[in-house]
Specification:
4 helices, eight-stranded mixed β-sheet, 324 residues, five-stranded mixed β-sheet, 29% helix, elongated, 16 strands
Length: 324
Amino acid sequence: MRGIGRGLAARTGSDQHGAAAIVVALSMTVLMGSAAIVLDAGDIWQQRRQLVGAVDAAALAAAADFAVDVDGCATTADSYVEANAPDVGSTDCVSTGIGSAGQVTVTAEVTVQHAIAQILGKESTLVDATTTAQWGPATSLTGLRPFALCEGAPAFQSWVASGFSTDQTFRIEYTKEQADACGGPAPGNWGLLDFDGGSNSNQDTKEWVEYGYPGEVDAPDWIDGDTGAFSQSLPISAVLNKVIHVPVFDDYNGAGGSNADFHVVGFVSLKIVDYKANGSESSRYLDVVFQTTVAAGKCCNGSTVDGGTRAVGLCAVENEGTCG
């Protein structure tokens, strides 16, 4: 009986060791699977985050190209994706519209090779990302100079008639009759604007001429007129031959002096190449070369005049958002 008991005890111990081995093997499988999920999921998340940033940058850069009549899908989108996501597998770029307004969608994908999940038969995962950016006439800008331009002014109309030339010089007769073609005359006003509605400080106007107004100006909106003169006191020479942005108005409230308001409907980009801000009031002018540029601001509801000043912005990421 003792022999039989010893045999049974030996078998029982052996069975327990076998069961434990099975449990350990199953546990290792679960642990390896969990490790694969954690490590490989981390790789997927990191690659996807990098890819989203890459297509965001690519869509904005492509939109900025399209805004100035350059095909942003030709090389720009690819180069921005590759610069920000070196392992990208493929990039697709599709645009609608060109010139004054439109949208561009950039999609990219990358294959993420798994480090551990391969053991379980999962070699890789395909990750993709999509972003849409839009461009169009700016509906708000920062950094504006206070020289407002009447939309009906001969210089602006001649520029439009020229097909938005960027190499011709146009003369803006910057006098007290500047508002006449937009509902003027505006007694006591030259078409300079008081962006912050303050005390019409000449020091403010000087700073805005040289450095640009630091706040945001919307279009369309009514903006106070500034009774300060277009004169030699303004540091116009500081912005000669630099691209600056100025407001365009289409109407005036009929009041004079500090009660004058101008209806700003858009923005125009230009370089001042010459000027006269002294002598008789009727002989003062700005000689400008209009530009088509992308500026720091918002777009793109289509309610503003297209003065060549355009803005870009993201409007849909991963098909979430509204691109009007």
